[in-house]
Design a protein that fits this description.
Strand order of the largest sheet: 4-5-6-1-7-8
Structural class: alpha/beta
Oligomer: single chain
Distance between the termini: 22 Å
Strand content: 15-25%
Shape: globular
Helix content: 40-55%
Number of helices: 10
Radius of gyration: 17 Å
Largest sheet: 6 strands, mixed
Order of helices and strands: EHEEHEHHHHEHEHEEHH
C-alpha cells in the first residue's frame, strides 16, 4: 500500500484521474505491469485490473446495496460474481444485512462501504482509493481502515489518497508527499513516522 498525502490542491486526485484516463496528462508516461497505459480508454484500463474508488463515494443512490455491488461485477461470470459478492459481504457484514436497502437512505459510512465493495467486485489488481475517510466519524474511519488493511493482506495493491495523515501512515507500507504536482518525499511510512525532522518538514507535526 502506497499513500499519497499532501495539502489541498497538490494534485492527488488529479493523479488518480490521470491513471484512470479520466484526465489527459500533459506529459510523462504511465506504466502498469511493464506496459504503457497512456491513451488507453478508461474501460480498457479497468479491464487491466485497475479500479478507481473516487472521492465522495458516488454510489447509485436509487439502487439497492446488492444492485450497486452487482454493477461492479458486470464483467464477471455467474460463479465469479457470487464469489466476489460473498467476499464483500464477509468484509462488510452490514451490507449483507442491508442488501435490499436503497443506498441513498444509508449513512455516509455505510455508503462508503458500498463504494469500496463495488470497487472490489471487479476483483482488482490495483485498487485506488480517493479520500475514503472524508466526512466520516472517527469510529467509522477505524472500521473502514481495518477492512482496507484486510484487503491489502489479501494481495491487492492499494494506492491511497488520504487527508487523514495519521490513519494513512499507520496502514501504509510506503508514502509519497505530493506538493504542487511534485513529489517532495518518497519512502517508508515507518521511517517518516519515526524521524522527527522529516515529520516537521513534511507534515508539520
Amino acid at each position: 500500500m502506497l499513500s499519497i498525502i499532501g495539502p489541498n490542491g497538490a494534485g492527488k486526485t488529479t493523479l488518480l484521474r490521470c491513471i484512470s484516463e479520466l484526465l489527459k496528462p500533459s506529459q510523462g508516461e504511465i506504466m502498469f505491469e511493464g506496459q504503457s497505459i497512456l491513451n488507453l480508454p478508461p474501460h480498457k484500463i479497468a479491464n487491466l485490473g485497475i479500479t478507481h474508488c473516487p472521492e465522495g463515494r458516488r454510489p447509485f443512490p436509487d439502487l439497492t446495496v446488492k444492485d450497486n455491488l452487482l454493477m461492479g461485477g458486470l464483467r464477471l461470470g455467474k460463479s465469479a460474481l457470487q464469489e466476489r459478492l460473498a467476499y464483500v459481504y464477509q468484509l462488510f457484514p452490514i451490507l449483507k444485512e442491508r442488501e435490499a436497502q436503497l443506498v441513498g437512505t444509508m449513512s455516509g459510512g455505510q455508503q462508503q462501504m458500498v463504494s469500496i465493495g463495488r470497487a472490489l467486485m471487479t476483483n482488482p489488481k490495483l485498487l485506488m482509493l480517493d479520500e475514503p475517510s472524508i466526512g466520516l466519524a472517527p469510529k467509522v474511519v477505524d472500521e473502514i481502515f481495518e477492512q482496507i488493511e484486510n484487503i491489502k493482506r489479501s494481495g491487492v495493491t492499494i494506492l491511497l489518497v488520504e487527508q487523514n495523515v495519521d490513519v494513512a501512515l499507520k496502514v501504509s507500507d510506503e508514502v509519497a508527499i505530493l506538493d504542487h504536482g511534485r513529489i517532495s518525499f518518497s519512502g517508508s511510512a515507518g521511517n517518516l513516522l519515526k524521524d522527527t525532522r522529516l515529520r516537521e518538514v513534511y507534515l508539520g507535526i
